[in-house]
Design goal:
alpha+beta; 29% helix; Rossmann fold; nine-stranded antiparallel beta sheet; 3 domains; Dna Ligase, domain 1; D-amino Acid Aminotransferase, Chain A, domain 1; five-stranded parallel beta sheet; globular
Protein backbone atom coordinates (compact mmCIF):
# COMPACT_ATOMS: atom_id res chain seq x y z
CA UNK A 1 0.00 0.00 0.00
CA UNK A 2 1.63 3.23 -1.19
CA UNK A 3 0.31 6.51 0.19
CA UNK A 4 1.03 10.00 -1.11
CA UNK A 5 0.58 12.89 1.32
CA UNK A 6 -0.03 16.48 0.27
CA UNK A 7 2.03 18.41 2.79
CA UNK A 8 5.35 17.85 4.52
CA UNK A 9 4.83 19.07 8.09
CA UNK A 10 4.58 17.27 11.41
CA UNK A 11 1.16 15.77 10.70
CA UNK A 12 2.49 14.17 7.52
CA UNK A 13 5.44 12.92 9.55
CA UNK A 14 3.26 11.31 12.21
CA UNK A 15 0.94 9.73 9.62
CA UNK A 16 3.94 8.15 7.93
CA UNK A 17 5.42 6.95 11.23
CA UNK A 18 2.08 5.29 11.97
CA UNK A 19 1.76 3.72 8.54
CA UNK A 20 5.28 2.38 8.05
CA UNK A 21 4.97 -0.35 10.72
CA UNK A 22 1.76 -1.54 9.01
CA UNK A 23 3.61 -2.08 5.72
CA UNK A 24 2.81 1.20 3.98
CA UNK A 25 5.24 3.22 1.91
CA UNK A 26 5.05 6.98 1.42
CA UNK A 27 5.78 9.86 -0.88
CA UNK A 28 5.13 13.54 -0.22
CA UNK A 29 4.01 16.50 -2.31
CA UNK A 30 5.21 19.89 -1.11
CA UNK A 31 3.59 23.24 -1.85
CA UNK A 32 4.86 26.82 -1.75
CA UNK A 33 8.45 26.01 -0.80
CA UNK A 34 7.36 24.59 2.54
CA UNK A 35 9.80 23.15 5.06
CA UNK A 36 10.17 19.44 4.28
CA UNK A 37 12.46 18.56 7.21
CA UNK A 38 9.73 16.75 9.20
CA UNK A 39 9.34 14.07 6.49
CA UNK A 40 12.96 13.82 5.37
CA UNK A 41 13.93 10.15 5.15
CA UNK A 42 10.35 8.85 5.23
CA UNK A 43 9.85 8.74 1.46
CA UNK A 44 10.51 10.68 -1.75
CA UNK A 45 9.52 14.36 -1.71
CA UNK A 46 8.19 16.09 -4.84
CA UNK A 47 7.68 19.82 -5.24
CA UNK A 48 4.36 20.77 -6.81
CA UNK A 49 4.78 21.54 -10.51
CA UNK A 50 1.73 22.86 -12.33
CA UNK A 51 3.23 21.88 -15.68
CA UNK A 52 2.89 18.16 -14.91
CA UNK A 53 -0.09 16.32 -16.35
CA UNK A 54 -2.26 14.33 -13.97
CA UNK A 55 -0.59 11.11 -15.14
CA UNK A 56 2.90 12.58 -14.75
CA UNK A 57 2.07 13.76 -11.24
CA UNK A 58 0.69 10.34 -10.35
CA UNK A 59 3.80 8.63 -11.73
CA UNK A 60 6.16 11.08 -9.99
CA UNK A 61 4.54 10.30 -6.65
CA UNK A 62 5.19 6.59 -7.17
CA UNK A 63 1.72 5.59 -8.42
CA UNK A 64 0.04 5.81 -5.01
CA UNK A 65 -2.90 3.62 -4.07
CA UNK A 66 -4.39 6.50 -2.09
CA UNK A 67 -3.68 10.19 -1.53
CA UNK A 68 -4.35 12.08 1.69
CA UNK A 69 -3.64 15.53 3.14
CA UNK A 70 -2.15 16.94 6.32
CA UNK A 71 -3.90 20.32 6.09
CA UNK A 72 -7.08 21.79 4.64
CA UNK A 73 -5.47 24.99 3.37
CA UNK A 74 -4.08 23.40 0.24
CA UNK A 75 -4.69 23.52 -3.48
CA UNK A 76 -7.47 21.20 -4.59
CA UNK A 77 -6.10 21.05 -8.13
CA UNK A 78 -3.54 18.26 -7.55
CA UNK A 79 -6.07 16.28 -5.51
CA UNK A 80 -8.67 16.48 -8.26
CA UNK A 81 -6.11 15.50 -10.85
CA UNK A 82 -4.81 12.58 -8.79
CA UNK A 83 -8.39 11.37 -8.22
CA UNK A 84 -8.39 10.40 -11.92
CA UNK A 85 -5.89 7.65 -11.09
CA UNK A 86 -6.36 6.62 -7.44
CA UNK A 87 -8.45 7.14 -4.32
CA UNK A 88 -8.24 10.50 -2.52
CA UNK A 89 -9.30 10.55 1.16
CA UNK A 90 -10.80 12.66 2.48
CA UNK A 91 -12.47 13.51 -0.80
CA UNK A 92 -11.68 16.91 -2.35
CA UNK A 93 -15.27 18.11 -1.86
CA UNK A 94 -15.01 17.58 1.91
CA UNK A 95 -11.78 19.56 2.03
CA UNK A 96 -13.38 22.29 -0.10
CA UNK A 97 -16.29 22.64 2.33
CA UNK A 98 -13.97 22.88 5.33
CA UNK A 99 -11.23 25.15 3.97
CA UNK A 100 -13.50 28.21 3.94
CA UNK A 101 -15.28 29.40 7.08
CA UNK A 102 -18.43 30.50 5.25
CA UNK A 103 -18.78 27.17 3.43
CA UNK A 104 -18.06 25.41 6.72
CA UNK A 105 -20.87 27.32 8.43
CA UNK A 106 -23.27 26.35 5.64
CA UNK A 107 -22.21 22.71 6.10
CA UNK A 108 -23.04 22.90 9.81
CA UNK A 109 -26.41 24.43 8.98
CA UNK A 110 -27.13 21.65 6.47
CA UNK A 111 -26.26 19.02 9.10
CA UNK A 112 -28.29 20.81 11.80
CA UNK A 113 -25.26 21.06 14.09
CA UNK A 114 -25.24 23.98 16.58
CA UNK A 115 -22.54 26.47 15.66
CA UNK A 116 -21.31 29.89 16.64
CA UNK A 117 -23.58 32.63 15.21
CA UNK A 118 -22.11 34.52 12.27
CA UNK A 119 -22.68 37.17 9.64
CA UNK A 120 -20.92 36.93 6.27
CA UNK A 121 -18.89 40.06 5.63
CA UNK A 122 -18.20 41.12 2.05
CA UNK A 123 -18.53 44.89 2.50
CA UNK A 124 -18.47 47.65 5.07
CA UNK A 125 -22.27 47.52 5.10
CA UNK A 126 -22.13 43.82 6.02
CA UNK A 127 -19.85 44.59 8.94
CA UNK A 128 -22.16 47.32 10.21
CA UNK A 129 -25.03 44.82 9.91
CA UNK A 130 -23.00 42.36 12.02
CA UNK A 131 -22.59 45.02 14.72
CA UNK A 132 -26.37 45.53 14.80
CA UNK A 133 -27.16 41.80 14.87
CA UNK A 134 -24.36 40.54 17.11
CA UNK A 135 -23.24 43.56 19.09
CA UNK A 136 -19.80 44.31 20.52
CA UNK A 137 -17.34 42.83 21.03
CA UNK A 138 -16.97 41.10 17.67
CA UNK A 139 -14.33 38.86 16.20
CA UNK A 140 -13.84 39.06 12.44
CA UNK A 141 -12.15 36.06 10.80
CA UNK A 142 -10.78 35.69 7.32
CA UNK A 143 -12.61 32.81 5.68
CA UNK A 144 -9.50 31.11 4.31
CA UNK A 145 -6.33 32.45 5.90
CA UNK A 146 -6.85 31.97 9.63
CA UNK A 147 -5.32 29.26 11.78
CA UNK A 148 -3.80 29.25 15.28
CA UNK A 149 -5.47 32.61 15.91
CA UNK A 150 -4.05 34.24 12.77
CA UNK A 151 -6.07 36.46 10.39
CA UNK A 152 -8.54 37.34 13.14
CA UNK A 153 -9.45 40.80 14.42
CA UNK A 154 -11.22 41.77 17.65
CA UNK A 155 -13.50 44.79 17.38
CA UNK A 156 -14.74 46.50 20.53
CA UNK A 157 -16.30 49.72 19.23
CA UNK A 158 -17.16 51.80 16.18
CA UNK A 159 -13.60 53.11 15.91
CA UNK A 160 -12.30 49.54 15.62
CA UNK A 161 -14.85 48.89 12.88
CA UNK A 162 -13.75 51.90 10.85
CA UNK A 163 -10.09 50.99 11.30
CA UNK A 164 -10.78 47.45 10.06
CA UNK A 165 -12.79 48.69 7.07
CA UNK A 166 -9.96 50.99 6.03
CA UNK A 167 -7.56 48.03 5.71
CA UNK A 168 -9.94 45.25 4.63
CA UNK A 169 -9.98 43.60 1.22
CA UNK A 170 -13.63 42.82 0.46
CA UNK A 171 -12.99 40.99 -2.82
CA UNK A 172 -15.14 37.83 -3.05
CA UNK A 173 -13.59 34.39 -3.26
CA UNK A 174 -13.69 32.57 -6.61
CA UNK A 175 -16.98 30.86 -5.71
CA UNK A 176 -18.49 34.15 -4.42
CA UNK A 177 -17.87 33.23 -0.80
CA UNK A 178 -17.31 36.23 1.46
CA UNK A 179 -13.73 37.06 2.48
CA UNK A 180 -14.70 37.38 6.15
CA UNK A 181 -17.20 36.19 8.72
CA UNK A 182 -18.08 38.10 11.89
CA UNK A 183 -18.90 36.27 15.11
CA UNK A 184 -19.74 37.40 18.64
CA UNK A 185 -17.37 36.73 21.50
CA UNK A 186 -18.83 33.51 22.89
CA UNK A 187 -19.46 33.40 26.63
CA UNK A 188 -18.17 29.86 27.08
CA UNK A 189 -16.80 27.85 29.98
CA UNK A 190 -14.14 25.92 28.08
CA UNK A 191 -13.17 24.48 24.73
CA UNK A 192 -13.36 20.82 23.77
CA UNK A 193 -12.73 18.83 20.62
CA UNK A 194 -14.27 15.66 19.27
CA UNK A 195 -12.16 13.43 17.04
CA UNK A 196 -13.83 10.76 14.97
CA UNK A 197 -12.79 8.38 12.23
CA UNK A 198 -14.98 6.98 9.46
CA UNK A 199 -14.01 3.97 7.37
CA UNK A 200 -14.72 3.44 3.69
CA UNK A 201 -17.50 1.02 4.72
CA UNK A 202 -19.18 3.72 6.84
CA UNK A 203 -18.11 2.57 10.31
CA UNK A 204 -17.60 5.53 12.69
CA UNK A 205 -15.58 5.49 15.90
CA UNK A 206 -14.85 8.29 18.36
CA UNK A 207 -12.00 9.07 20.69
CA UNK A 208 -12.90 10.49 24.12
CA UNK A 209 -13.77 14.19 24.05
CA UNK A 210 -10.71 16.31 24.82
CA UNK A 211 -10.49 19.59 26.73
CA UNK A 212 -8.12 22.16 25.20
CA UNK A 213 -6.37 25.25 26.54
CA UNK A 214 -4.97 27.82 24.11
CA UNK A 215 -2.38 30.56 24.53
CA UNK A 216 -2.46 33.47 22.05
CA UNK A 217 -4.69 31.40 19.77
CA UNK A 218 -2.34 28.39 19.72
CA UNK A 219 -3.13 25.10 21.45
CA UNK A 220 -0.95 24.78 24.55
CA UNK A 221 -2.27 21.62 26.19
CA UNK A 222 -5.07 19.06 26.07
CA UNK A 223 -6.55 16.60 28.55
CA UNK A 224 -8.58 13.48 27.75
CA UNK A 225 -11.18 12.53 28.64
CA UNK A 226 -12.50 16.06 29.06
CA UNK A 227 -13.14 16.43 32.81
CA UNK A 228 -16.76 16.65 33.96
CA UNK A 229 -18.27 16.84 30.49
CA UNK A 230 -21.80 15.48 30.75
CA UNK A 231 -22.85 12.35 28.92
CA UNK A 232 -25.55 14.42 27.18
CA UNK A 233 -23.00 16.83 25.71
CA UNK A 234 -20.70 13.97 24.72
CA UNK A 235 -23.58 12.26 22.92
CA UNK A 236 -24.56 15.52 21.21
CA UNK A 237 -21.00 16.15 20.03
CA UNK A 238 -20.57 12.65 18.67
CA UNK A 239 -23.96 12.75 16.93
CA UNK A 240 -23.08 16.08 15.30
CA UNK A 241 -19.71 14.89 14.08
CA UNK A 242 -21.21 11.65 12.77
CA UNK A 243 -23.82 13.62 10.82
CA UNK A 244 -21.06 15.70 9.20
CA UNK A 245 -18.95 12.66 8.32
CA UNK A 246 -21.90 10.91 6.72
CA UNK A 247 -23.10 14.02 4.89
CA UNK A 248 -19.66 14.39 3.28
CA UNK A 249 -19.16 10.65 2.65
CA UNK A 250 -15.95 11.24 4.55
CA UNK A 251 -13.15 8.67 4.93
CA UNK A 252 -10.46 9.28 7.54
CA UNK A 253 -10.09 11.32 10.73
CA UNK A 254 -11.90 14.61 11.35
CA UNK A 255 -11.74 16.94 14.36
CA UNK A 256 -14.58 19.19 15.53
CA UNK A 257 -13.67 22.03 17.91
CA UNK A 258 -16.43 23.33 20.19
CA UNK A 259 -17.18 25.97 22.79
CA UNK A 260 -18.97 24.61 25.86
CA UNK A 261 -21.70 26.45 27.75
CA UNK A 262 -23.48 24.79 30.70
CA UNK A 263 -25.97 22.90 28.54
CA UNK A 264 -24.84 23.38 24.94
CA UNK A 265 -22.00 22.72 22.51
CA UNK A 266 -21.27 25.35 19.84
CA UNK A 267 -19.10 24.17 16.97
CA UNK A 268 -16.36 26.68 16.24
CA UNK A 269 -14.31 24.92 13.59
CA UNK A 270 -13.84 21.68 11.66
CA UNK A 271 -10.50 20.15 10.66
CA UNK A 272 -10.69 17.54 7.86
CA UNK A 273 -7.51 15.81 9.00
CA UNK A 274 -5.67 14.52 12.04
CA UNK A 275 -5.52 17.22 14.70
CA UNK A 276 -3.19 18.66 17.32
CA UNK A 277 -5.68 17.98 20.12
CA UNK A 278 -5.52 14.26 19.29
CA UNK A 279 -1.76 13.83 19.67
CA UNK A 280 -2.29 12.23 23.07
CA UNK A 281 -3.64 9.16 21.26
CA UNK A 282 -0.09 8.22 20.22
CA UNK A 283 0.90 6.87 23.64
CA UNK A 284 -2.23 5.54 25.32
CA UNK A 285 -2.68 1.94 24.24
CA UNK A 286 -5.25 2.77 21.57
CA UNK A 287 -4.92 2.93 17.82
CA UNK A 288 -3.72 6.53 17.49
CA UNK A 289 -5.57 9.04 15.34
CA UNK A 290 -2.70 8.70 12.83
CA UNK A 291 -2.93 4.90 12.72
CA UNK A 292 -6.72 4.97 12.36
CA UNK A 293 -6.53 7.58 9.62
CA UNK A 294 -4.17 5.32 7.68
CA UNK A 295 -6.34 2.27 8.34
CA UNK A 296 -9.44 4.13 7.14
CA UNK A 297 -7.99 5.49 3.90
CA UNK A 298 -6.46 2.09 3.10
CA UNK A 299 -9.81 0.32 3.56
CA UNK A 300 -8.52 -1.70 6.50
CA UNK A 301 -10.37 -2.47 9.77
CA UNK A 302 -10.34 0.38 12.29
CA UNK A 303 -8.50 0.07 15.60
CA UNK A 304 -9.72 0.64 19.14
CA UNK A 305 -10.36 4.21 20.32
CA UNK A 306 -11.11 3.21 23.91
CA UNK A 307 -8.86 4.97 26.44
CA UNK A 308 -7.91 3.24 29.66
CA UNK A 309 -7.20 5.94 32.24
CA UNK A 310 -6.39 9.45 31.02
CA UNK A 311 -3.81 11.44 29.12
CA UNK A 312 -2.54 14.99 28.80
CA UNK A 313 -0.63 16.56 25.91
CA UNK A 314 1.66 19.59 26.13
CA UNK A 315 2.76 21.35 22.96
CA UNK A 316 6.41 22.38 22.75
CA UNK A 317 6.19 25.90 21.33
CA UNK A 318 9.40 27.67 20.39
CA UNK A 319 11.57 25.73 22.86
CA UNK A 320 14.82 23.89 22.22
CA UNK A 321 14.93 20.10 22.32
CA UNK A 322 16.02 19.07 25.83
CA UNK A 323 15.34 15.45 26.64
CA UNK A 324 16.73 15.80 30.17
CA UNK A 325 14.20 18.50 31.01
CA UNK A 326 11.29 17.27 28.89
CA UNK A 327 11.31 13.52 29.63
CA UNK A 328 10.20 11.88 32.85
CA UNK A 329 8.43 8.70 33.96
CA UNK A 330 5.19 8.13 32.02
CA UNK A 331 5.94 11.06 29.71
CA UNK A 332 6.63 10.50 26.00
CA UNK A 333 8.38 13.00 23.73
CA UNK A 334 7.68 13.50 20.01
CA UNK A 335 9.98 15.94 18.19
CA UNK A 336 9.12 17.13 14.67
CA UNK A 337 12.62 17.68 13.26
CA UNK A 338 11.92 21.39 12.65
CA UNK A 339 14.20 24.37 13.20
CA UNK A 340 13.46 26.36 16.34
CA UNK A 341 11.59 29.66 16.00
CA UNK A 342 9.61 31.58 18.65
CA UNK A 343 6.09 30.20 19.00
CA UNK A 344 6.60 27.46 16.41
CA UNK A 345 5.11 24.00 17.06
CA UNK A 346 8.24 21.90 17.43
CA UNK A 347 7.04 18.81 19.27
CA UNK A 348 4.81 17.64 22.08
CA UNK A 349 4.82 15.67 25.31
CA UNK A 350 2.20 13.10 26.30
CA UNK A 351 1.75 12.02 29.91
CA UNK A 352 -0.54 9.22 31.01
CA UNK A 353 -2.23 8.61 34.36
CA UNK A 354 -5.19 6.91 35.98
CA UNK A 355 -7.62 9.85 35.79
CA UNK A 356 -8.04 13.23 34.17
CA UNK A 357 -7.65 14.89 37.57
CA UNK A 358 -4.31 13.22 38.24
CA UNK A 359 -3.13 13.93 34.68
CA UNK A 360 -3.97 17.61 35.15
CA UNK A 361 -2.18 17.67 38.51
CA UNK A 362 1.00 16.39 36.86
CA UNK A 363 0.63 18.61 33.80
CA UNK A 364 1.15 21.88 35.67
CA UNK A 365 4.62 21.11 37.09
CA UNK A 366 5.63 19.64 33.72
CA UNK A 367 4.56 22.85 31.99
CA UNK A 368 6.52 24.92 34.53
CA UNK A 369 9.60 22.78 33.97
CA UNK A 370 9.39 23.22 30.19
CA UNK A 371 8.42 26.89 30.05
CA UNK A 372 9.39 28.32 33.43
CA UNK A 373 7.00 29.87 35.93
CA UNK A 374 5.31 32.50 33.70
Amino acid sequence: MHVAVLGCGQLARMMALAGLPMGMTFSFLSENNEDTAPVTGLGPITAMDDSLSSRELYDTLGKPDVVTVEREQCSLVPLTRLAEHCAVHPNPHAIYRCQNREREKQLLIACEVPHTPFVRVASAADLHKAVVELGFPLVVKHTEQGYDGKAQWRLYNDEDVESFVAKANFELQSDQAAPYVAEPFMDFEREVSFIGVRSASGEVRFYPATENVHKSGVLLHSVAPAPQLSSELIAAGQAGLKAILEHLDYVGVMAMECFVTPDQLWVNELAPRVHNSGHWTMHCGVASQFENHMRAIAGWPLGSTHLQGAAAMLNLLGVELDQTRQLEDNVALDWYNKSVRPGRKLGHLVLTDDSAASALARLQPLKQKVYGTD
